[in-house]
Structure formats: structure tokens, C-alpha cells
User: What shape does this take?
Amino acid sequence: VRPWIPHDREGVPVGSSMAAVVAERLLDLCAVGVLLAGAMAWIGLPRGAITVGGFDVLTAGLRSVVGLVMVVGVVCAAVAWRSQGAIGRGLRSLAARPARALAAAACTAAMQALTLACVALGLWSFAELELSARVVWVSWAATLAGIALMPTPGFFGPFEAACATALEVM
Assistant: This one.
């Protein structure tokens, strides 16, 4: 739906809007990969520390994200440089403006930082829970991985299970 709204309201070509949505999702995947890798490396959690439903949430999540980034990246590159269609033109247009790509990456990082701040605020609300950068980072990374690995309608269940397990481990 998102690519057609700018087209209907502002006359933006659907291919350009679609390219922007694809680029946004790719940046989101990269941000989740950084969160997961950080939870495993920077925080120093052992493999299998956060397991939900038999899944090592962090390891499986990181593998999934890396795989998706590779597949989506290759498909985007192929479409951008081989296609003369609207999506190909839109992706080439985005790639031709590195400053915009950097600004988009900065916006993605800022949104993740804001989310981490909201997680910290939530943890701060409960005196029984530890509030530290480590706990905030790991609980949010595990929650994202749980949502991605075990999607359900409304994300009920996996979200709570991954978050609760991360908080138990921390």
C-alpha cells in the first residue's frame, strides 16, 4: 500500500516509492543484524543462552537476518542494474545519492536508539528488573529475533516468550 499513497497524492512514480520501501526494509534488517551481533559479541552471551521453543534465539535470528540481507541485497542489485522498469530506475536513483543513503541509515539508527530508550524506560518502571545497557540491548535484540523467527498473528506469544527469556537470563 505504501508505494501507491505517494503516487496517488503526489504523483511519485510507484517504482520509486517501491524502491524506497525495499531500501528501508534492507536498512531495518541490517539494524536488527547489528543488534543481534552486538548481543552475542559485545554483551558476551554464550550460544544458547536465550532459547525459546528449542530455538537459540540470538544465533538463529542472526543467521536469518544475514541470509535475508544477502538475498534481498542480491535481488535489489539485479533489479536495479538489469531492469529498465520503474523499480530498477528507483533503486538506481537511490544508489546514485550516497548522502541520502547515509541519511537513511542514520534515521534507521536513530529509530533503533529511540526504541532502546523506550525499552530502558519500560525496565526502569519495574524496580525488580535490572536497568543497564546490557539488559536493554539483549532484551530488545531477543524480542526482535523471537518475533522474526516465530511469527504469529499479532505476534502474540513469541514476543513475550523471547523478551521474558532474555530478562530471565540477564
